[in-house]
Design goal:
alpha/beta; Molybdenum Cofactor Biosythetic Enzyme, Chain A; Molybdopterin biosynthesis moea protein, domain 2; 5 domains; six-stranded mixed β-sheet; 35 strands; elongated; binds ligand LQZAQKY5; binds molybdate ion; binds magnesium ion; MoeA-like; magnesium; MoaB/Mog domain-containing protein
Length: about 650
């Protein structure tokens, strides 16, 4: 990893900042970068065309994250809001007009409109910054112009001599043991420290110049001494909406699989339209116990010719002629010629056989219409009728399985169900049922049982990955094991600012993961982290949620992010939680961060919907605030105009449990 060039991709757009899904340039730039092994996209963000927001992000990425390369897309044009060049120029310590001109000259050959870009480029500290226009096409063209040049440029920016590149240009053999992507950084100070045995070998040194101590993600890092760690998180605090859009943008439904029609289908999403193979009912059947008649015969006394009880029989049922009736049970096959069924209650016995065992003559008392009390062939479902649609969820209520079972379909194509693995982390965390008294500083693992229970209730498969101590090697091994076996790995703990909070650096430095966000403006769950981790034997990256360790933070963020992601993976079109507007029964003081308060939503005697928080003290370590919870109250962040929500006001409540 340490030889990879760490890149930040910043989308600058008013539209994309409110609707992240509309951002196509940022993701296309990420794909271009990820297609080349030498780059790793360490961070992405979207900001509006806002001078300060642009400067803040670019500065943090250069100065705190010390990225090799920052690429921005958008805001370089003539539009009134376009201000990327104005925001970026003052941040550049040295401009790189050669790169800017090279891009311009190539781009105007493709389209004269390229002249309307005011892009700039340059160097800040040890970071190269390029500003691209906002269209995916322009982004691709621009990137391709400079792609070959960038590693060499970065090498020089980082104090390298460029010797390797020059040797390469002259066709000279490269020193043995140097991989392609090493050429870019091998002579730079950046090469020290990480990725080569993480501090156990001769590569680690901490005696660099001031600038060097900030290289790599060392300041977040695995082998950086505590005093040198960053004192502020380098991960931008992004809004909840954006975080959700990022997660859902990365989740694509799993492939299809054939499954038998039985309870194993509960919760599955159909991946095909299902067509009835058989008609329901497959024969003309009586709806009532009584007598099959010919309706035109009308009331009167009739000989009983035969009996048709609901049972299988070969061939067609017997026939009745005008003036005859036949005894029939509910579900029995109608005799040929019968046009209606008269219920037994509307008849009376006239004569029996001599031994009294058989009916001989019965009087029909009621007049019936043709077709009365008969289920015609296919009157429920006809052969060839599309009964269930692709995308439909097979519910636990039973309706879908019941219908599938009735129409002669034995197997259906459904989306594969994801498996999620749970790993608790922390030296202080012990199995909740270890049977031993806690030692000082120990805490029982409540996160795994909680999340496993919620997963089981939601019908997903899971793997219990146990507890990993706060050691880089143990964590790496446990996560790798989980990623191998599961579609999503969820860890809890170790994502904030403590020296034992190792998840983020492990993800980036050891697993080659891209962290898409590492902090969210929400309460609880601020340090919630989401990453995609490339897999050696598959093009498809795996998803990884590193949730905060605090039990309530872990539980709430699991419900808000992971369960919807699991539903989307399983093919659900509606994967977010449903919500209701409920009347809050008490005042609530708002927090700076938008908050998800644990609440109980109930239906009042008058049919209204009301909600109350489980407890005033909603600290994220207090699992007791989760007792009885069926809802998360979505409270907005505090403003000077709205410091609190008053009793009686309506508040959106996400229904994560059953309404009471
Ligand atoms: N300087 C700062 N400190 C903290 C910040 C911050 O922004 N700056 N954020 C706080 C917030 S908000 C949260 S939430 C927590 C998140 O902590 P971590 O994800 O790093 O988790 P840990 O430090 O490992 O543990 C936190 C807490 O939870 C207990 N824990 C951990 N795992 C379990 C488990 N499986 N079962 C039960 N309890 C568990 C652990 O013992 C700690 O008490 O960080 C704040 N700090
Ligand atoms: O965001 Mo933390 O989850 O407040 O406790
Ligand atoms: Mg911590």
């Amino acid at each position: 990893m340490s030889n990879q060039l760490r890149v930040g991709v910043l989308t600058i757009s008013d539209t994309a900042s409110t609707d992240p899904v509309s951002d196509t340039s940022g993701p296309s730039l990420c794909r271009l970068l990820e297609a080349e092994s030498r780059y790793t996209v360490q961070i992405t963000a979207i900001v509006p065309d806002d001078f300060k927001a642009i400067q803040k992000t670019v500065t943090a990425w250069c100065d705190d994250l010390d990225l090799h390369l920052v690429l921005t897309t958008g805001g370089t044009g003539f539009g009134v809001r376009d201000c990327t060049p104005e925001a970026v120029l003052p941040l550049l310590e040295r401009q790189t007009p050669g790169i800017t001109h090279m891009i311009f000259s190539k781009s105007v050959q493709i389209t004269p409109y390229a002249a309307l870009s005011r892009a700039v480029s340059g160097i800040r500290g040890q970071t190269l910054i390029l500003t691209f226009p906002g269209s995916p096409k322009a982004v691709k063209e621009n990137f391709e112009v400079v792609a070959k040049l960038l590693p060499h440029a970065i090498d020089l920016v980082r104090g390298g001599t460029g010797k390797k590149t020059h040797e390469k240009m002259q066709g000279a053999p490269r020193p043995s043991g140097l991989a392609d992507n090493e050429a870019a950084t091998s002579s730079s100070s950046h090469d020290h420290g990480h990725g080569h045995g993480h501090g156990h070998g001769g590569h680690t040194c901490f005696h660099h110049s001031d600038r060097e101590t900030k290289t790599d993600a060392a300041s977040l890092g695995l082998d950086t001494p505590v005093p040198r760690r960053l004192r502020k998180s380098p991960y931008p605090l992004i809004p909840m909406d954006q975080a959700l859009a990022i997660v859902m943008g990365k989740v694509t439904p799993l492939p299809s699989v054939e499954k038998p029609v039985n309870e194993s289908l509960i919760g599955a999403v159909l991946d095909e339209d299902v067509v009835a193979v058989e008609a329901v009912p497959g024969y003309r059947a009586a709806i009532l116990d009584g007598y099959a008649v010919i309706d035109t015969d009308g009331p009167g006394q009739y000989p009983v010719t035969s009996a048709s009880i609901a049972a299988a029989s070969e061939g067609s049922p017997r026939k009745i002629l005008p003036g005859q009736i036949a005894r029939i049970t509910t579900g029995g096959a109608l005799p040929e010629g019968a046009t209606a069924v008269v219920m037994v209650e509307d008849t009376q016995l006239v004569k029996t056989s001599e031994d009294g065992a058989q009916e001989e003559i019965v009087e029909i008392l009621a007049k019936v219409r043709p077709g009365e009390a008969i289920r015609e062939i296919g009157s429920d479902v006809q052969v060839g009728q599309t009964v269930l649609k692709k995308g439909q969820v097979i519910s636990a209520v039973g309706g879908e399985i019941g219908v599938l079972a009735s129409i002669g379909v034995h197997k259906v194509a459904v989306r594969q169900r994801p498996t999620v693995g749970f790993l608790s982390t922390g030296n202080e965390v012990v199995n909740h049922d270890n049977g031993q008294a806690l030692k000082m500083g120990q805490i029982r693992d409540s996160n795994r049982p909680t999340l496993i229970a919620a997963t089981k209730a939601a019908g997903f498969d899971y793997l219990d990955l146990g507890i990993a101590p706060d050691s880089p090697d143990d964590l790496e091994a446990a996560i790798r094991n989980g990623l191998e076996k599961c579609d999503i790995v969820v860890t809890t703990g170790g994502v904030s600012m403590g020296e034992m909070d190792l998840l983020k650096p492990i993800l980036e430095q050891k697993l080659g993961a891209t962290i898409h966000f590492g902090r969210i403006m929400m309460k609880p769950g601020k340090p919630t982290t989401f990453a995609t981790v490339p897999q050696a034997n598959s093009k498809q990256s795996k998803l990884m949620f590193a949730l905060p360790g605090n039990p309530v933070s872990a539980t709430v963020t699991y419900h808000l992010f992971v369960l919807p992601a699991l539903r989307k993976l399983a093919g659900y079109e509606k994967y977010m939680w449903p919500s209701v507007q409920a009347e809050i029964t008490h005042d609530v003081r708002l927090d700076e961060r938008p908050e998800y308060q644990r609440a109980i939503v109930s239906v009042t005697a008058e049919g209204g919907i009301q909600a109350h928080s489980t407890d005033k003290n909603q600290m994220s370590s207090r699992m007791v605030t989760m007792l009885g919870v069926n809802s998360l109250m979505v409270l907005p962040g505090k403003t000077s105009e709205r410091p609190s929500v008053k009793a009686g006001q309506k508040i959106e409540c996400l229904l994560i449990g059953k309404l009471v």
